[in-house]
């Protein structure tokens, strides 16, 4: 990890007090009359709030809120590619994913760490199939994502938020990419898991513990992003993907509605 | 990826070969066939375990080094493994300087995600004193030549190197309040790792309407999207990742996963057989690579 020399970072070896909490088995919370801790059913997603076009200086922007998961995204471009080596006849898309330092339980660094870099790549791969890159040759579009508060599924929320911002910026796309995530816990599947319910590799011992994130373009029925974590058997993972697809399709009209409303209020 | 520009005609030729009813890839393989593989373990003497893999033109050297360290506060009772991939400029001049960094981090994140669950490798056995001392395995993958399908090759190499890894036995003596670690000086007094449930990555490349395993460099240039799966010998999936700038139909994803699971199981069992056979033949085995 390269350290930031321009900031005073405080002592290097601080620890979050949360590592001393005892991890409870999430199943015991679920089984309370078939409801999750926050009162949702297993396949119920959290209420969704969307607001495109809130950063006035950006070409396009969007804000998404799913209970305590809050993500903001700005899109700039198409603009000139500055570095000669990066020249390409096709348009380019760049993504930068960042957790705000205070967004997670654990304090994040000011600079992008390995996880954030990995998430940037995953986000880019989710958006690239949707954007018509040939419409802006020799130019680039930059997508900046900042997670303000993380209460689970930061990646899925970012995918939805970023594609909404791209649409708001007027970048031509084949379809909006909708992200969704599911947590697999034995024979239970939790759609749209909260931070507490999310998969952590250290406190899972059995097979069929993990999570799946997908990005779907609903109107052309194409999956643009698919990642999973944890050891899961074939049938369960297929089922999880199918459930995620259904969730995406449910959310899609809400996104369309949000975009239509933002266009109406602009004019 | 080492990009080579192929002409449209050449790409169409490869595409048509795969699309025909009589499947014929540019090198005569079927859609679910791997290329010829050469594997040998214990090639670098200064490591705790090492392996070299040659998959047609792809050449990979993996070294495992075990060192003592402090366990991370999140997992106080287990050791850790750290992957590092080095894309050496020997493989292609494009990797010079920081050119190979992007690919290298991509390979190492996929590998660490594959091993990031307690079923695949028992990290608890690497712990010596909880919260104080544990073994940290540094797994370094060196890319010597690129001939396509680097992810699969790297994962096979890693598994073979872990099979070959020997960790010296340590004993903990408690004197008053202080713990003292004593390392066994007998070179044969070692622990081995159980890799029977470690995953191998199977990459399925979508070319035209069909998918192929073990794509060569040419085929990779024609492919818009691929699916990488970490498959264990039991057939469970330890990681899944879609890669590339194309998108995939849900049905074809399920088809690809089915193929990947099948291929992955066969790959895991045959790899283990080969490794066991090599181990049995001991010093009599004949060396195939340039090393030694």
From TrEMBL, chain A:
An example Gene Ontology CC term for this record: nuclear exosome (RNase complex)
GO function terms (MF aspect): RNA binding
Keyword 4Fe-4S part of the UniProt annotation: no
Pfam short name (any one): RNase_PH
Keyword field: Cytoplasm, Exosome, Nucleus, RNA-binding, rRNA processing
Annotated localization: Cytoplasm; Nucleus, Nucleolus
InterPro entries: ExoRNase_PH_dom1, ExoRNase_PH_dom2_sf, PNPase/RNase_PH_dom_sf, Ribosomal_Su5_D2-typ_SF, RNase_PH
Primary localisation category: cytoplasm
GO biological process, one term: nuclear mRNA surveillance
Domain Exoribonuclease phosphorolytic per the UniProt entry, residue ranges: 44-172
Membership in a protein family: Belongs to the RNase PH family.
Subunit record text: Component of the RNA exosome complex.
Function: Non-catalytic component of the RNA exosome complex which has 3'->5' exoribonuclease activity and participates in a multitude of cellular RNA processing and degradation events.
Protein name stated in the entry: Exosome complex component MTR3
From TrEMBL, chain B:
Chief location bin: cytoplasm
GO biological processes: exonucleolytic trimming to generate mature 3'-end of 5.8S rRNA from tricistronic rRNA transcript (SSU-rRNA, 5.8S rRNA, LSU-rRNA); nuclear mRNA surveillance; nuclear polyadenylation-dependent rRNA catabolic process; rRNA catabolic process; TRAMP-dependent tRNA surveillance pathway; U1 snRNA 3'-end processing; U4 snRNA 3'-end processing; U5 snRNA 3'-end processing
Entry keyword set: Acetylation, Cytoplasm, Exosome, Nucleus, RNA-binding, rRNA processing
Pfam family, one: RNase_PH_C
Residues annotated as domain Exoribonuclease phosphorolytic: 34-168, 199-262
Keyword RNA-binding set for record: yes
Transferase found in the keyword field: no
Record-level GO cellular component terms: cytoplasmic exosome (RNase complex); nuclear exosome (RNase complex); nucleolus
Subcellular localization: Cytoplasm; Nucleus, Nucleolus
GO MF assignments: mRNA 3'-UTR AU-rich region binding
Complex and partners: Component of the RNA exosome core complex (Exo-9), composed of EXOSC1, EXOSC2, EXOSC3, EXOSC4, EXOSC5, EXOSC6, EXOSC7, EXOSC8 and EXOSC9; within the complex interacts with EXOSC2 and EXOSC4. The catalytically inactive RNA exosome core complex (Exo-9) associates with the catalytic subunit EXOSC10/RRP6. Exo-9 may associate with DIS3 to form the nucleolar exosome complex, or DIS3L to form the cytoplasmic exosome complex. Exo-9 is formed by a hexameric base ring consisting of the heterodimers EXOSC4-EXOSC9, EXOSC5-EXOSC8 and EXOSC6-EXOSC7, and a cap ring consisting of EXOSC1, EXOSC2 and EXOSC3.
Family: Belongs to the RNase PH family.
Entry protein name: Exosome component 7
């Amino acid at each position: 990890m390269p350290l930031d020399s321009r900031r005073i970072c405080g002592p290097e070896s601080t620890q979050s007090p949360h590592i001393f909490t005892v991890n409870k088995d999430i199943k015991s919370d679920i089984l309370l009359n078939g409801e999750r801790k926050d009162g949702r059913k297993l396949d119920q997603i959290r209420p969704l709030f969307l607001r495109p076009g809130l950063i006035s200086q950006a070409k396009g922007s969007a804000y998404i809120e799913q209970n305590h998961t809050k993500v903001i995204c700005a899109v700039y471009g198409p603009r000139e590619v500055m570095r000669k080596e990066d020249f390409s006849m096709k348009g380019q898309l760049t993504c930068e994913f960042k957790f705000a330092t205070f967004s997670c339980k654990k304090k994040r660094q000011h600079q992008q760490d390995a996880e954030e870099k990995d998430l940037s790549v995953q986000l880019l791969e989710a958006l690239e199939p949707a954007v018509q890159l040939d419409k802006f040759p020799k130019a680039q579009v930059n997508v900046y994502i900042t997670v303000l508060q993380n209460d689970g599924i930061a990646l899925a929320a970012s995918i939805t938020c970023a594609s909404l911002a791209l649409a708001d910026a007027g970048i031509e796309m084949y379809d909006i990419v909708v992200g969704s995530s599911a947590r697999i816990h034995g024979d239970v599947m939790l759609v749209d898991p909260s931070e507490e319910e999310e998969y952590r590799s250290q406190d899972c011992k059995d097979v069929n513990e993990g999570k799946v994130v997908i990005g779907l373009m609903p109107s052309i029925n194409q999956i643009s992003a698919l990642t999973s974590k944890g050891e899961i058997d074939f049938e369960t993972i297929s089922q999880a993907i199918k459930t995620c697809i259904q969730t995406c399709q449910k959310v899609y009209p809400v996104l369309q509605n949000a975009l239509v409303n933002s266009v109406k209020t602009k004019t | 990826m080492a990009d080579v520009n192929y002409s449209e005609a050449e790409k169409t030729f490869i595409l048509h070969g795969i699309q025909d009813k009589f499947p014929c890839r540019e090198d005569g393989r079927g859609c679910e066939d791997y290329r010829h593989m050469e594997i040998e373990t214990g090639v670098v003497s200064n490591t705790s375990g090492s392996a070299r893999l040659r998959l047609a033109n792809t050449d990979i050297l993996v070294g495992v080094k075990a060192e003592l360290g402090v366990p991370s506060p999140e997992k106080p009772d287990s050791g850790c493994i750290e992957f590092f991939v080095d894309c050496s400029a020997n493989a292609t001049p494009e990797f010079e300087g920081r050119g190979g960094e992007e690919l290298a981090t991509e390979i190492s994140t996929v590998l660490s995600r594959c091993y990031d669950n307690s079923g695949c490798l028992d990290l608890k056995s690497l712990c010596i004193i909880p919260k104080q001392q544990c073994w940290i395995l540094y797994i370094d993958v060196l890319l010597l030549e690129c001939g396509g399908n680097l992810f699969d090759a790297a994962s096979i190499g890693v598994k073979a190197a872990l099979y070959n890894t020997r960790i010296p036995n340590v004993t903990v003596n408690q004197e008053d309040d202080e713990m003292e670690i004593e390392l066994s000086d007998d070179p044969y007094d070692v622990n081995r790792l159980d890799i029977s449930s470690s995953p191998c990555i199977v990459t399925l490349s979508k070319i035209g309407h069909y998918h192929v395993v073990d794509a060569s460099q040419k085929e990779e240039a024609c492919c818009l999207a691929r699916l990488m799966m970490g498959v264990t010998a039991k057939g469970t999936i330890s990681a899944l990742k879609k890669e590339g700038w194309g998108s995939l139909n849900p049905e074809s994803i399920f088809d690809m996963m089915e193929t990947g699971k099948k291929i992955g199981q066969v790959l895991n069992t045959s790899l283990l057989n080969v490794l066991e056979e090599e181990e049995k033949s001991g010093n009599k085995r004949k060396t195939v690579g340039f090393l030694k």
